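Quick board copy: two proteins, each given as sequence then tokens.
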Amino acid sequence: MKLQRKNRRALALGAIAVSGALALTACGSDDTGTSGSGDSTATAAAGNIDCGDAKGQLQASGSSAQKNAVDAWVKQYTASCKNVQINYRPDGSGAGITAFTQGQTAFAGSDSALKPEEVTASKKVCSGGQGIDLPMVGGPIAVGFNVPGVDSLTLDAATLAKIFDNKITNWNDKAIAALNPGVKLPDLKIQAFHRSDESGTTDNFTKYLKAASPNDWKYEGGKSWQAKGGQSAQGSSGLAQQVTQTTGAISYFELSYAKGGIKTVDIKTEAAQPVKATVENATAAIGAAKVVGTGKDLALELDYTPSAAGAYPIVLVTYEIVCDSGNKPETLPATKSFLNYIASEDGQGLLKDAGYAPMPAEIITKVRSTISGLN
């Protein structure tokens, strides 16, 4: 399917209006965003998307990390392809993969690549094929905090590991003070929040802790939180809400959720200066990722301990998981059409304004080629 390139500049200009969370079509979730505005944005998109034979309802679920990106994509896509309704449930990567391997959805979103046992399970619903990972969305996992009187905060992996493992429990702890000379830290209890649901964001955050400070983070890792203590909340939006309303709070979530005045931690790495959580700094780290998947699978290996200046170390990549072959005939046209759009220059062009990092050119080119061969 060849994407139409006409009026790309008009779409890029219109996309500036798309930021944060935009409303999904007929989809409710715990990660409720705000409605986007501007019919001109949708109108600008109308001539750039190849709908082909796409029609009907497309069910998908998974990563809440990519919800704000999916919202923006769905708004643009359905303005052009009016015969398609896309329902994306941001109920976590674990739940998304389970729904996909049980044949309940056309594709899933996951912030972690499929595990061998999940690939095996996918073969039951992918007739003659298997589930594959298509990297589509990148970005920084921000560490948000709410400490009265503190506007700027630097932490390193060892200190973060001890905070989230309940080993550092007060904001004026000497380890935090040593990283923040001249900052007046209050005598205040730390309220550390983690995800209550299975989450690829948790997986990537704990992979960073384990890689960057193995002596302080002894847990195996994975989508489920394993450390003792702390408090929990559902979804990235739930964690962001807790940071906003809880004095002394700290938590982790995608940068797109660090809105409404949430302050984020600068991360001390091997570089000379601490690194801020920005799309550009995350892109610098993701650009060093390696494709380690085999065949049509495009799973990436991320570097959680970059030493280059300006490379933000806590990043994730969200994959769209789909059958390489054996997709359901009734949803295949809509699946390919939508995936083709979000992997296109126009689709990837929306990501930065929504707080995400587009995939590097060499990676997204492989993704587009793989999508074209789905059957």
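And the next:
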Amino acid sequence: MKRRFILAASLCIATLGMQAQEVAFEEYDLENGLHVILHQDNSAPLVTTAVMYHVGAKDEDPEKTGFAHFFEHLLFEGTENIERGKWFEIVASNGGQNNANTTQDRTYYYEVFPSNNLELGLWLESERMLHPIINKIGVDTQKEVVQEEKRISYDNAPYGHWREVMSKNLFKNHPYRWQTIGSLEHLASATLEDFKKFNKIYYIPNNAALVIAGDFEIDGTKKMIQDYFGAIPKGAPIKRSSFKEEPITETIKAEFRDPNIQIPLIMLGYRTPEQTNREAYILDMISTVLSDGKSSRLYKKIVDQKKMALQVFAFNGSQEDYGTYIVGGLPVGENSLETIQKEIDEEIVKIQTELISENEFQKLQNIFENNFVNANSSVEGIANSLVRNYMLYDDTNLINTEIDIYRSITREELRAVAKKYLNPNQRVVLEYLPEEKPAN
């Protein structure tokens, strides 16, 4: 009975994925280079207005890091027509919500309003693009905000520096070697002119994409978009540098002491291909086999059966230029980091040398079918996917076709890609340790 129920559930998930409705959209460019994407869904009276700028931490000067993340905060300060400190008040008082986030590749701002306030969302984002006020009081205020964020999320957070340490060792030339939070010293020493220059280069219509998703009328929305964004001047073409990393050919050992932890952590980091590469999709599936859920290989063996670790994980962090594949675990009791590493390596070798079973492969496919459906289950999620696919993958329609890539991946490819990238001589081994106690 139990086996029959599981099979039925799996078939249900697979069927759900196969029946997921195609996301319809329209896209075009304004004369100033702003790319526009429209997805109409009148099933609920809500609309998402969002702008993604093709600027992230990787676009920063190595001596002036943290600017992209800083602008995520700074561009809420106010504009020529929005009084300082009133942005969030305007949004909330009109029944909306808004936020922003920054990665090493892009910055994303969005508002969600009742559909009768679409024009307000367009006005807010056009104001952010055309009329931002970058002055000393705003810069000084946000410097304090970023300093506090760094203290909370990095300096005083358990394991808060793992990504920083891993990135410095995986990347020697590429800007991925520093984090989006950047250097507080760089921000502190930056001048007002430095910030104005960064804004002038990157926060321009021809380096941005506007997406509207939800309940709206197409023709009227196009007119409003033209009215609010059409007159914004086109910026100068952006000159982007390219960075190439030499292959890692022998194990890089790293260690970090964290005063905020008591349990050590072992992390194995591998440099992987860019997110548009088919192999990046295959690595997504490999990480799912290894550590997605309690029935995954690493969890079942190391946490559940052998009870050697509190937690194990594997994830593929795909980005525009390179990816990072991370595997690791937290030992329990007297188990050492070396023992956890050995157990992890044994499972990686199995992936490299043996085909996963047909049953395991079918379960894997079902997981990705379900993820695909969930990613497109809200207009907010659809808006994000559409603009991200346009900007970072150069394929807006990937929102409809990406699942076909996962469906086409074979068991043989899982084995081959694991063998290509997840080798001991191609990785960083990071021992993330509690701070040493002084001798009595």
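Board note added afterward: Residues 136-155 form the longest helix (20 residues).
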